[in-house]
Amino acid sequence: MSSINVFENLLLRYHENKLAHAFLLETNNEELCYKDVLELIKKMNCSFNYSNNCSLDCNICNLIDNNSLPSLITIVPDGQFIKKGQITDMMERFSTKPVFTKENIYVIREAERFNSSSANTLLKFLEEPEDNIIGIFITSNKENVISTIRSRCQIFSCIYDNNIIDCLDDNILTDVKLYLNSIYKNADDLLYNKTHMSGFYTDRKDWELFFKTMLYYLDDCYISERLDKVELVKNISKDKLIKIIVLIEDILKYIKSNGNIDLILDKFVIEMRNYYE
Ligand SMILES: [Zn+2]
Fold first, then answer.
1. In CATH, which superfamily holds the domain spanning 3-158?
2. How many helices (H) and strands (E) does the chain have?
3. What is the pLDDT of residues 154-165, one digit of tens each?
4. How many Å lie between the centroid of ligand 1 and the Cα of residue 87?
């Protein structure tokens, strides 16, 4: 089932009152999945028969776009884990009935990052589901979600084609190409990291997006005849390009496991030197 159909299915279930109080979405693209979840929530609640340009005059869609709908809370890990305090804050806010919408809805991103104390706190909530609360969990790997939570969720798979056109933000892609051009065959690549890249993004999520963009871009350079190939890509063999793609996948793992960004960037340029012919 394509990801679009998953959300159509969820919306249909919702309108037929068949949607579970908690469901888990396993996805290969967390960002896109979250965007689609927000769109689903709009469709569930929009009073103007939601369409893409609805937000111009629609209160609910506007509030969702501005992240200020009182009955919607998105939780992302605070540091390495989702913390107990984030769950208790949410429970406290949802102890009252929703105002603009039929349900209070919480979305938990990176649901594999509960620790035992935040998971136990949430369990109470999941075990005594109230009619007007919906929990949506997003994860890249359902096997890594604490089993007590997973077992109380209806599970859906939400797989996207890694289609470059959907995934790439033009500004980030520009940054990526500039970076690849700057370090390519540059004896001062480490210095470039230090002077230009250190602190380039303050948020780890932005670094993740940066390297994901690089990954999608190089993937696409591999499989298609892009007109905007950087020098590096034009000059190396496809074998080497594949190795770089594998390297970037590793880099993304280091970023996700909270490695020091400056060290990760240095590791990246040092390993990249192996692939310049
Ligand atoms: Zn609307």
1. P-loop containing nucleotide triphosphate hydrolases (3.40.50.300)
2. 13, 5
3. 999 988 765 555
4. 28
